[in-house]
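Quick look at the format.
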Amino acid sequence: MTSTSENGRIKGIFTVQEEFPMMYIHYCTHCDRIHMLNGHKTSCPACGQPLKELSVSFLEFTNMDAQERDLYQEKCRSVL
């Protein structure tokens, strides 16, 4: 027997999961900007130059305060 969930999807034997895009943190050395982008992007949305995907997770980055983010960006400048 099947039923529908709140969003109208059919529930059956398997669990209904919402589809949310995966967010990844990228750094552009040309723009010196950190971007939060969905998926594994390879070019900067601002300038079109190649991006570096960072090892920090989206949740870790968004939980940083402004000072921690500035320090992380400074680390990106010196390492990448």
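Next, a different chain entirely:
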Amino acid sequence: MLRFGVEFKQITLHNGEVATCYRRLADVPKDVTALTIGSSGYGTHRFLEVAIGGCGKAGSLHGFDIGSPVLENVKLREYAQSAKE
């Protein structure tokens, strides 16, 4: 789950676009690129979901496919660290 202080944080994606963190997909405003906690995952770990509010094609619009890098490694480390705080 996104922890206090992480929601609404802006993260630069691998393609240079900026996404805002939201707790739920339903909270993402229309036409806004967002990162949310996905509904699927492995065990207690959830996958990160890239979404655009009101659009079902965020992956293709941003050029992401299965296995594509989504976050820069440094950004991923920053995100993981801020989630622990």
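Residues 14 and 41 are 21 Å apart (CA to CA).

See the schema section for token definitions.
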